[in-house]
Amino acid sequence: MANRPPASPRPRVAVVGAGFAGLAVAQGLRSAPVDITLLDRRNFHLFQPLLYQVATASLSPGQISWPVRSVFSAQKNARVLMMEVNAVDTRSRTVTDGSSVVPYDYLVLATGARHAYFGNERWEPFAPGLKTIEDARALRENLLRAYETAEKTRDGAERRRCLTTVIVGGGATGVEMAGAVAELANRTLKGEFRTIDPQSMRIVVVEAGPRLLRTFPVELSEKCLSSLDKMNVEVRLKSRVTDCDAKGVSVDGLRIDAATVIWAAGVQASPAANWLNARADKSNRVFVSAALNLDDHPEIFVIGDTCAAMSDGKPVPGIAPAAKQMGAYVAKVIGAHAAQKPPPPPFRYRHQGDLAVVGRSAAVVRIGKISLTGFTGWIFWSLVHVMFLIGFRSKTSVALDWIWAFVTRQRSARLISDGDASPLATSASSDVQLSPRRDNTSQGGGYAA
Amino acid sequence: MANRPPASPRPRVAVVGAGFAGLAVAQGLRSAPVDITLLDRRNFHLFQPLLYQVATASLSPGQISWPVRSVFSAQKNARVLMMEVNAVDTRSRTVTDGSSVVPYDYLVLATGARHAYFGNERWEPFAPGLKTIEDARALRENLLRAYETAEKTRDGAERRRCLTTVIVGGGATGVEMAGAVAELANRTLKGEFRTIDPQSMRIVVVEAGPRLLRTFPVELSEKCLSSLDKMNVEVRLKSRVTDCDAKGVSVDGLRIDAATVIWAAGVQASPAANWLNARADKSNRVFVSAALNLDDHPEIFVIGDTCAAMSDGKPVPGIAPAAKQMGAYVAKVIGAHAAQKPPPPPFRYRHQGDLAVVGRSAAVVRIGKISLTGFTGWIFWSLVHVMFLIGFRSKTSVALDWIWAFVTRQRSARLISDGDASPLATSASSDVQLSPRRDNTSQGGGYAA
Question: Nearest Cβ partner of A410 from B393, B400, B401?
Answer without folding.
Answer: B393
